[in-house]
Amino acid sequence: MSNIQKIKGVADLFPPESDKFAFMERTAREVFSRYGYNEVRIPIMEKTELFARSIGEETDVVQKEMYTFPDRKGRSLTLRPEATAGLMRAFIENKLYAAQNVSKLFTFGPMFRYERPQKGRMRQFHQLDVEMIGANEPQADAELLLMLYTYLRGLGLRQLSFEINSLGCRNCRPGHRQALVDFFAGLNRDELCDDCRRRVDTNPLRVLDCKVERCRELTANAPKITDHLCDDCRTSFEVILGILDAMKVEYVHNPRLVRGLDYYVGLTFEVTSTDIGAQTAVAGGGRYDGLISQLGGPDVPATGFAIGMERLALLLGDLEHPGVDFYVAVLDDSCATPALSLAQELRSAGLTGEAAFGAGSLKSRLRAANKVGARWCLLMGGNELAAGEVTVKDLAGGEQERVALSSVREYIESRK
Ligand code: HAM
To answer: Single GO molecular-function term (predicted)?
Structure first.
């Protein structure tokens, strides 16, 4: 019978790759909690309507990339393509706004987008998602960016570029939209790609985000949102940039950065790297005031970002897989159960290690001890057992010594 293989665009992760994910999660918990964020967990399935209403009917994500299916009762469900929509649904449904003025939340887990898989682009990928709900001050956006910066540096990553823009608000955006429509009216539409020809009418801003070279050339001189910002948006943007300058966080103002999801207003940003192939965005986010009320909640402002963990993993060097403290080598069958007891006692004391389940030759057992990365091999044969002892072999230094069973823990701990 043929074996069953995984589906396209998903991955099985083993060490050292899975160690990188654990490292990203551990560092996130450490760094984000210092800024007052709480970890939450939300479902990976939601009603399809949630994504259509938040991400936007006209976006690639909703139009082409969602895993949508009817459940057994015929209700349309979708595997989440991102976490913001679900988090806002949960925020509203659980009335988190009643408990606190500002909610700082983060979560991580798998997301699903039906895209053409390539390096750094998966159909099941993982995001580390951060949302700050309830604050509309530019200092809140600045703090969010500083936290992202601190997190990435905490992982040892320094060669990343921060691209920043402001998309304006409902007051200044219509003016820019009209300027774009006028600009596109002067272009030969047939020269644009199929998607952009449609976007010119449905969502002209998104034309600026097109990756097709010809579209980029044609729109090189398109009106910039920066020239249309209202006073409030301009001041907020300047405050944010001023804080980044003062904190010596390097960034590039990219007036073409518009992002692929429709809910953004004001600040938008992406963290990019040229070291991960064609997919350059490691993280992306921005402010999305208005989304919560659009989903039926109160009018509460919010800002956030998500990091693509697979892309971040591509940038992390191989981490050293941690070894263990001990390996109990069983040299005689009579020692199998005592070896297990010894291992159990040592683990209860906080040491890490393994015990062989049955007897084997000295050579094969030493090989096994090296394989699990043990520092000490505890040799247990009939002689040792009769004397109530083990032979402790230091696999780093090579020396060995007979030690009473009752003192093994102390012996290891004093030499760690
Ligand atoms: P996004 O830009 O669509 O934003 O995704 C954020 C990050 O997820 C990207 O920068 C990328 O690293 C990663 N990513 C996206 N698609 C894939 C894929 N197919 N394979 C691998 N990685 C991928 C959002 O999702 C927003 N919800 C971010 C946000 C949170 N905005 C405000 N709050």
So the answer is: histidine-tRNA ligase activity
